[in-house]
What does this fold into?
Amino acid sequence: MTQATPKGQSAPAQRPNILFITTDQQRADCIGYENPRLQTPHLDALARAGTRFSNCITPSVVCQPARASILTGSLPLTHGVWDNGVDLDPAVGQQGMAARLAAAGYATAFIGKAHFSSKITFNATGTPECRKSAPGYPHDWYGPYMGFERVELAALGKFHRARLPTDAPAIHRFEHWFLSHPDAMARWSSSATEGSGAAQTWDSELPADWHSSTWVAERTLELLKSRQGQSEPFFAWASFPDPHHPFDCPAPWNAMYKPADMALPEHRTLDLEQRPWWHRAALEGSPQIADPELAKFRSEGFKVPPQTDQQLAEMTANYYGMISHVDHHIGRILAGLAEAGLAENTLVVFASDHGDMMGDHGLYLKGPMFYEGVLRVPLIVAGPGIPAGQTIDTPVSTIDLAATFLDSAGEDFGSPQSRSLHPVIQGQESRECAWSEWQVHPARLGVALELRAVRTARYSYTFEAGSGAGELYDLQADPQQLVNRFDDPAWAEARARMHTLLMARPGPVHTHLAEPVGIA
It folds into this structure.
């Protein structure tokens, strides 16, 4: 199949395959090369073989907007998924990187957690991810979806003990596969225990072979085997649901890290009197949802009561175990890529959608606070033509991956927001900043917020557009983000420069935002 080539460029002799691997809710400092307490030998090796970005930020600090941004190469208020529970318009999804690569002759596949549409909805929405709509799809449905020709969904990918589904539609491949084990329900309910009571943390003894991380790896390995001998290049997105809460690392990985060995954040207590008004409002507000069970479910994903040091240590140890478990399977996938004879001509990219507070400032999981733990994400690029052992401090965003993948294929993505990272990797371009945003619906936290953020190599700046309040942190002098300089007259010049960068956000903004159809 011939490919379109941007005017003035020549088509590459052989277009590379693209293998995109993501995790959910993994902090940038939770990989071995930044955190020696964590064992991630395969990701460390991938970083040594390629280039890693130390200042990659997420376009949004919550799942659905961040994932829609990766797919579309645009910011949330441009693609319209402004909060969790707001579905990506399929017409917009069809303009994203998967559809564009398919049109360029790539075989496209998605395996794992998509979350481009809501899973838990108020009513059936018609999307394959919606638990109320999925049973209406034929059992042999494998796509297409959002530009991907073949799709194998882990719709939830995570189970809270109290909400383990008793059945699952066949098109939710992981959940259906999990429940096909005759004693899955019994093993789950008998093995998940609360330990010390650490929030969202479960001492699970389920077999690792039954875990979603194992399933994503196995299905990806099967896909790679199927690509042997194929002349058509492929683009595959392998999306692990871990280490997202609930923290339920399977045995034996749940015993890999001892809570007593965990280094806890130095600043791990709430100091709301030193923070902008919306921090307290979000923590103390109640989701504006009529159904009390759904309101409780939504609140649990953002509001965690204060944890003792022992509880935070247990949460952290479990979180680390989940990351090492995923790293093990990433190693299997990379080995499978080599065994299939595909490694030399495959661009491998690893990233996460957003991070986790993990006790920073006395906060947990994620919320409307754009601290580094949730804003900064890992990004590694390795493969043909990528310099080895390189670390780049230039601020970039995961929305840049869409243009990067199209550039690798000899195509022009043509977006003002997504820009190829290849010139940055080759030392031909530097950038000053990257943007993040989140429009918070009161159904989530009980308060409506218009949060905009911009990040440079030195400063992190957040602005609540509705009230004019904000945060400014000097990351060089204050890496823990303890002193907010937003209202400090001595920092007026830095604040003005950051606000100018914030307002220079490229691309259109939706003036009419769709109402949420679900909660997650």
Q: What stands out?
A: The chain has a mean pLDDT of 91. Residues 21-429 form a domain with the Alkaline Phosphatase, subunit A fold (CATH 3.40.720.10). The chain is about 30% helix and 15% strand.
